[in-house]
Amino acid sequence: MNSTPGPPGQLPPDGTEGTGSADDAAVAVLRERLRAADEAIEVPHGLWDRIQADSPTGRHRHRPYRIAVLGKPGGHRPRLTFVVAAALVGAIALGTWWLVRPGGQDRPTPPSGTRGVTITVHNAESACRELRTLECALRVAKDPYERYAAPGNRAARVWHGDRLEARCVVTDGTLVQDEKGITSTRWYLVRTALGAEGWLPGVRTRNSVEVPDCARGSDSH
């Protein structure tokens, strides 16, 4: 390359005016800074081993967490095994709770030798007291320990003023609040005039007559 300068005031053929040495110096400084930055980066311990182990080749060659006791040889990954185990533990816990909860296997029943008491249905909404429509019907539930409005938890419908036979009462049922804000955990095991049997929340009556407590299991005899 011809680096001989031309006449004074005339640019070299490449259109620059002696910038070669300056560019070389800038490149050298940039290269040095990149090298220093690269040396300053600390690679986490075991990173390359983990990358290699997670590669398709590494997974095929090294499978330390396979479990063969569930299913076919080769088993499942720990994550799947953990999910299955957690589901089993949850199912066992739920089944245990279902058996020991109030109203589980020891379903409340009327104590032997007692007679039913007549109670009257009360609707807190005054606009519904004269109407026997579906909108104004009150639910008699199947289970006093389930959510009152849960799907499937309905044994019958009753209306304001209906007279029911209360056979016994539980005091630890699901808490229910009526439209006026009154709450209660009392539930009455009732029988309607049509013979349907179920549970009426205490807030759906204004009972002032003593009703015998329901018995459970061996206490019913």
Widest beta sheet: strand line-up: 1-4-7-8
Helical segment count? 4
Shape: rod-shaped
Number of strands: 8
- Give the C-alpha Rg: 41 Å
Hey, roughly how much beta strand do the residues contain? 5-15%
H/E order of the elements?
Answer: HHHHEEEEEEEE
User: Percent range for helical residues?
Assistant: 25-40%
* Largest sheet descriptor: 4 strands, antiparallel
Structural category: alpha+beta
The average pLDDT score comes to 75
> Which residue ranges are poorly predicted, with pLDDT under 50 across at least 5 consecutive positions?
8-17, 62-78, 91-100
Alpha-carbon distance between the two ends? 116 Å
What does this structure look like?
By secondary structure, this protein is of the alpha+beta class. The chain has four helices and eight strands. A four-stranded antiparallel β-sheet has the order 1-4-7-8, with no helix packed on it. It has a two-stranded antiparallel sheet with strand order 2-3. The chain is rod-shaped and about 110 Å long.
Which tags fit this structure?
single chain; 221 residues; 26% helix; 14% strand; rod-shaped
Write the layout of secondary structure elements.
Blueprint: H1 20-40, H2 47-54, H3 56-61, H4 78-100, E1 117-120, E2 138-140, E3 156-158, E4 163-170, E5 176-177, E6 183-184, E7 187-191, E8 197-201
Antiparallel strand pairs: 1-4, 2-3, 4-7, 5-6, 7-8
Brief summary:
With 221 residues, the protein is an alpha+beta fold. It has four helices and eight strands.
